[in-house]
Amino acid sequence: MHLRSLFYSPGGTPSTRDGQVIANLGRFATRGVLKQCSAGYFGSNLGQVTKECSGECEPGWYCPQGSQSPRQVACGSENVYCPKGSASPQQVQEGYYTTSQEDEPCPPGTYREDETAGDVKPSPVTSFKPHRKCIRCPNGSFKYLPGDHASLCRECGPAAVNSFFRTSCDCHQSATDREVDPLVFDVLLGTCFKTSQYTKPPDDHIPPLSQLTKTHEHPCELGHFCHLGVQYKCPRGSFGDRQKETYHQCSGLCEPGYFCEEGSPTPTQYACGGPDVYCPRGSSVPQYVREGYYTPENEKFKTTQILCPPGSYCREGLRIPCPASRFGSSSGQHDAQCDGVCEPGYFCPPDSTSSTQTPCGNSSVYCPEASTTPVLVDQGYYSASDTNLPADFYSGPNSTHHKQVMCEIGYYCSGGIKYSCPAGTYGTVQGAHDASQCQECEAGYYCKSHPGPPTTNGVECGKEDMFCPAGSVHPRQVDRGYFSINQYSQEIEDNSTAMTRHQKGGMLWAVYEKNSQGGKNEKKSRALALNANKKEASEAGPWCRMQDR
Known about the structure:
With 549 residues, the chain is mostly beta strands. The protein contains two helices and 53 strands.
């Protein structure tokens, strides 16, 4: 009897068959012979008659000979892929990927870490937030499906322990029993079975296009590198400007003055920003400039921070000169007060590095504490410092005076210098600013003044052999043949003859003869001031003769 093509003849010898049976799943029958469906194909129906059976295996799965489902075996891990009709997985080429880390859920055996876990922190400068990582399921659990949630990790139970990759569990079994009939773990049921009693079901429970069911490979994209079929973003601070990159640092580090987030295709992805941040080579985010540091003024995009130099303070990345009147002698200042104020006798322009930055100048100016510029001395004042305040001190040129003092009596002050009244004069007022304000020394007195101590009143001329005209600097000796007089002696008549002089009671008395109306001479005496202011030639007489002697 001729067999129908979908049946085969069992039993006996090829020439003694006694019946026919329909081809079972995963097989086909032709000319009475039962054969397995070809690799890459499946037979999901009875009575298949060709080697292609029910059709090609679905993309993402592969079908060994005799497969019964279009999803017989999931393709596997990320480093393999299975196009339609695959008989076995194909290895991903170097520089290619099947799975993109950032676009897909966590693979079997892992779950997405919590937002608050690990080092997942937003940048202090930018809004960049790192992608949360996939981490392995806890010990004693497994996860056979892709997905991010931790609840997908299931307990292995008391009869098994998790495998290394946490994608399944290994059943507890003695070495002897393992030799005889190994136990297998069914991930769907979460139970161990003896191999002899277990038929692995098709992997049709695994979703398509997951990490286990990839259908194609793709060249690694810009800003990424690929390893074992997985595409990863280039690390923060680096960039990838080549396709099919396999090096984990991609093309290199981000350029100075720029920062690169994950997956940057260029070394200048983002400009660093303002003066308060800087970006060294390989920056993933801008870094804030520390207090007491600044960023270089000549750089548009900042690459480094520099310690603030003396004479400046640095805030928010800017270098600012210490204000006028202050100084900064140390590095790293961050406050406008700098190191303090300028010392008396000196002035400090902006950027000063010393409390004695610039001597005040000549005597026409003075510099109090915290001076920004010298102050011009007022008329009638002189410049001074605490070390030369005595009234008799001559205030000559000095470069570090810090105050002005009103000119004392006996002096006049001009251009910040104190001068004694000129010789032969004396001072009567404070605050004089010109020599013309000094008074001429009166007749009968002398005024030494400059270069001696200041003169505020004339000094009496002295003995009768001295006389002092107005403006005298010192007493003058009466010449021989002369005698000294003052305004009182003018009252002595011209026809009188001085006979003698003697001092009594602080006054000089002159004894002289005066002709009376009867022609008789009378002796008289007259008090004369001791302060003679002129000399007169003397008539012959006892006084002059005695002087001549």
